[in-house]
Write a structure and sequence with these properties.
Blueprint (H helix, E strand, L loop, with lengths): L10 H10 L6 H15 L4 E4 L7 H6 L4 E5 L2 H7 L10 E3 L12 E6 L10 H14 E12 L12 E6 L3 E8 L4 E9 L5 E9 L3 H10 L3 E6 L13 E7 L8
Parallel strand pairs: 1-2, 1-4, 2-3, 4-5
Antiparallel strand pairs: 5-11, 6-7, 7-8, 8-9, 10-11
Helix pairs in contact: 1-4
Pfam family, one: Methyltransf_25
GO molecular function: methyltransferase activity
Organism: Catellatospora coxensis
Length: 253
């Protein structure tokens, strides 16, 4: 049996995933995401790590990009299949650190919405970069979307940072500053007035650590911006979109 540090999304979570992630489906966010990725893919195929229910893959495929995916959770793939067939968007079930998609090299590999943090050891995260590099054609690009941990907003002695506060949802992250482990906590008010609690675990990575992981995989930083619209990345940015490129030719050893 495959062993991974990632949480495994079950059938109930998968069935509710699109509904509870509705803010990630807004046209402004989704269109800018797809525009950015389609431009980098060009005429070549793309591979999404942690493809989930296809929030990004389905509209990217609709743009004419041949998209494949890797996904740990079979229930998430089952939800994706309600939208597109396996012929339209093929998916390999497995973890994104070691699972391979045979048969072609990709012009683009990408992982969005902080999902690289789902693998919760540094070694596995390094292997995600190496796995991306293995799948890339020379000159291809690896893209991640990742938030900047909000730990500088924590006063001494505090271990939690809120990221969502509304009448329907309260969410906060707790951090272990020693291990870089964290947990996202979600409290959602349902239509009947009851409350549902859910949590997911992650390991946060700083941009500089990402760059070192990329270097270990033989990738070179090409671009870093604050969002899918291309806003400049600054010390105040709360997220980053980073693009690393596989060299067009491999130097002789």
């Amino acid at each position: 049996m495959l062993m991974t540090s990632s949480d495994l999304w079950d059938e109930d979570t998968a069935a509710r995933y699109d509904e509870t992630s509705a803010e990630m489906f807004t046209p402004d966010l989704l269109d800018s995401t797809v525009d950015f990725l389609a431009r980098l893919a060009g005429d070549g195929p793309a591979l999404e790590f942690a493809i989930g229910t296809g929030r990004v893959a389905v509209p990217l495929a609709a743009r004419g990009v041949h998209v494949s995916g890797i996904e740990l959770s079979q229930p998430m793939v089952d939800q994706l299949r309600r939208k597109v067939s396996a012929a339209e968007v093929p998916v390999a079930v497995g973890d994104m650190a070691t699972t391979t998609v045979a048969g072609e090299y990709f012009s683009l590999v990408y992982v969005v919405w902080n999902s690289i943090g789902n693998v919760r050891t540094q070694d596995e995260q390094v292997e995600c970069f190496r796995n991306a590099a293995r799948h890339l054609a020379p000159g291809g690009r690896f893209v991640i979307e990742l938030w900047i941990p909000g730990i500088r907003r924590m006063p001494p002695g505090q271990s939690a940072v809120p990221f969502s506060i509304s009448d329907r949802h309260v969410g906060f992250d707790t951090y272990d500053m020693v291990t870089q482990q964290g947990t996202s906590h979600h409290y959602r008010r349902l239509d009947d007035g009851s409350t549902r609690y859910g949590a997911s675990n992650f390991r946060y990575i700083w941009p500089a650590e990402c760059d070192l992981m990329a270097r270990l995989a033989g990738l070179e930083l090409e671009q870093r911006v604050a969002d899918w619209h291309g806003a400049p990345f600054t010390s105040d940015s709360e997220s980053h979109i980073s693009v690393w490129r596989k060299p067009p030719t491999t130097p002789a050893s």
